[in-house]
Each structure stands twice: as structure tokens, then as C-alpha cells.
Amino acid sequence: MECFKKIAGTLAFVLLSTVSIAQLTQGSIRFERRTNLKKTVGDNPRVSRFLNDDNKIRKENFELKFNETSSVFKHIENEDEEDIGMMKYFTQRNTVYQDLDNNGFMVILNSWGQPMYLQDSMSIRLWKVTESKRKFAGYMCYKSIWEMNDSTRIYAWFCPDIVPSVGPEGFSGLPGAILGLATEDGGVVYYATEVKEMEVTAETTDFTEYMDETYTKEELKEILLKNMGKWIKKKDLDAMFAWY
Fold first, then answer.
1. Residue ranges of the domains in the chain?
2. Residue 107 — φ and ψ, nearest 5°?
3. What is the pTM of this model?
4. Could you give the CA distance from residue 9 to residue 5 in angstroms, rounded to a whole number?
5. Which fold has domain 2-215?
6. What pLDDT digit, counting tens, does each position of 218-229 carry?
7. Helix count (H) and strand count (E) of the chain?
8. CA neighbor of 15 nearest in space, from 168, 149, 96, 133
9. What is the pLDDT of residues 40-83, one digit of tens each?
């Protein structure tokens, strides 16, 4: 209870001290994701031999479309990107749908070149909101911290002027959209490069066409362990689903 009081007090300070510009309730946010492959997969001997100082930082773009009740986060294909062999499998390019009204989400996992469909309830994350702030895409954002586990913290910068609680990869739970997201070691960093106001219809964020193919997190983990147990370990699967 005391923790929630502190969070509520900090949120009140943040919201009252924000000089409001026109608040957005629907629109699109373009993100660049930078992945330091030496930090994320470099300890895997089968992967490390492909990495060097020239290709260790991988840049990819995503778009988040949102309204007050739902959102969809998708990878933006880049025709100029040069994928060399296995390099294209070193990062995930998932599509994430959020149903804010029903606290649910659906993910099309793009792993090993085959889509897998995950549907479950959104995770409850206890964010510690701070008074630290910085701008992303011209919007003032406030830093918050989530202790994912004993050794990992996630930093998120949210903007109260973009109202829906949405973010990259389905991250949410803050009083405003997340425009910056990073692992503590800087292995994975998302930051907004552009925000646009636009109409986002229910059809844009609808995922009902996939409903017959979806599994919960635990069901999908069990299936993957059964079918790929020789090549993947349980701890790797736990890491794969940790953000969801």
C-alpha cells in the first residue's frame, strides 16, 4: 500500500507539473529500435562468430498505431536493409495488438521465420515513476523503472500528453504513451522519432482473424519445449516471453 501511495504521489506531481500541449487520443508513433547484438546474443557461441564491430548494432523501425481502446505495433520493412544469412534471425520483429478495454493482447511472434500466435492478459507491472525527464520526438516524457527480475530493470519514458497507455512491444501501465524504452544495460533501446495525429479505426487494430490459431504464454512454451527441446532451453524461452 505504501508503494502505491508513493507512486500516486509522484504521478500527481508529474501530471500537475506538465505544461500541456494538445493531448492526443489517437495517432501513430514511429520508433527506431537499436539492438546491441553482442549484449543480447553474443554469449551464444553459435552466434558470436557472426558478430563484429561493424554489425553489432542493429537498427530497425516500427510503427505504433493507437486509439483510446486499442493499438497495434508493427515492424516497418526496409528494402535497403542488408540481411546477411542468419543475421536476420538475431532479433525479433513481432506484431503486437493491445485490447485496452479488456486488458488483453495478441502477439504474432516472428521467430525462426515462422509465425506463432500468442494471446493472453496483459502483464501487471509495478512501475516506479521518477521526476527525471527528457524529450522524444518533441514531447516531454518522464522516466519510470520496472524491476523485471532480480537482475534486470527496464526503463520507460512516458508522455502524459499522449493519453492512451500504450507503448512499443505492448508495454503499458503508465499514465500516457511510452515514447522511450530501454533495458538497463542498453542492449535494446526503443525511441520515438515521429508522432502523428491521425484517425485509427477499429479495423486497424482488430486481430480477430487470428483467434483460432492463438495460444497462451504457458501453452506456447510447452509446445516449443516439446518440439524444439533439443535446440532451445527453458531459460531461453522464459527470456523470449519475459516482456509479455
1. 2-215
2. -120, 130
3. 0.86
4. 6
5. outer membrane lipoprotein receptor (LolB), chain A (2.50.20)
6. 898 888 888 776
7. 5, 12
8. 133
9. 887 777 777 788 888 888 999 999 999 999 999 999 987 666 55
